[in-house]
Amino acid sequence: MSKEIVTKNKELIFSILLFGIIVLILSPLVSATGITLFCLTYGQTIYFSQCNPTMNDFTCTGTTCQVCVNEVSSGVFCTSNSCNQACVPYEEPVTQDNMPEITLSSPSENALLTNLTEISFKFSASWSSKISSCDLMIDNSNVSSTPSPFYSGPHTLFYSPGVGAHNWKIRCSIKSSTQVVYSSQRALTIFDPNAPEDDAGNESNETGNGNETGEEESEVSNPYFVLTSPANNFQSTGAQNIEFSFYLTENLSLQSLDECNLAVSSAIYPLNLTEAVDSSFALSIPVSPGSYNWFVQCANSTANLSSDTRIFVINSPSPAGGGSGGGGGGGSGSKAVNSSSKLTTNSTISGIFEASNTEENETVESTENSPRGFAGITGAAIGDALKKPIVPIVIVIVVLVIVGVLVYLKRR
To answer: Whole-model pTM?
Structure first.
């Protein structure tokens, strides 16, 4: 019996020892299931503060970094010193709360720039460690990309858009994901300061007297402005209101401008940009006779742009015409005719007085203007004598005397 008990005891002891050895062998593996050696790339960050608020986060500042961590829960890591395996790539978790944000620096909104040099598009990104690369999007087309690896801090991409109005933004791709994030969008306008101007103007359609202008004409010789009225070489007569009108082409955005002015010779008329209708402007201005030139100039903080220059002429009206009579001039000629027309063959003495008062020291060159009623009785001499104011009075007295004498003789 004793021998059997000893044998059973030996088997029990051996089983206990074997179990202990197995436990000792497996215990490190069990305890190390949450421990990982991560390989980080430049800019990637492990947020140890999520494990313990007093701990500092770790950001890789070299090309690659190795960090031993213990994942205590999903996505939450604490530091560890028990790593003895090869490192594995670290994939930084991305949520809506820590999605990178792209901030645009320059060009500014509605920038007006020349095409003489490449344009620098500058931006920065938060949570840059989560970004694999960023692209410059011009009019929704990828035209330039950042190099790899993507790093924190400001970034600059260079590109030369064509002349005209454009929109631009930045698109960034998230590491180990199909997600992308966009910046806000900005507008810019590119112009060519050396663009040739067409000096050939449109001829105006005018009538023979120059008072009408015909239909308005427009010419597209400037890539930014189209002048519609008045036409080049327009002519009219007399002081009047002239409507100046023009519109911006698709190469120039109204929002990119700070100010616009209408120049009519030496006078400058500011334009209200908020009153434009579909990028069109119209302004009525009173002008007096003279020769003028006019053009439009717009500007913002980076550039000045001018339209072509047109000319127009406002003629002075012709002076009013008159008669051609001699001696006293045109007016006197007309007046003499009107005065003599009052006297007829049957003129009376009262008519003679009327003619005398109407003439007002005018020179009558023909005897046709004399009272014809007396010309057949006494001749030209009496007619000339009647021109003197005293003669009619004497005649009246003589007639009265003769009548009195005849009455007296008849009574006797």
So the answer is: 0.43
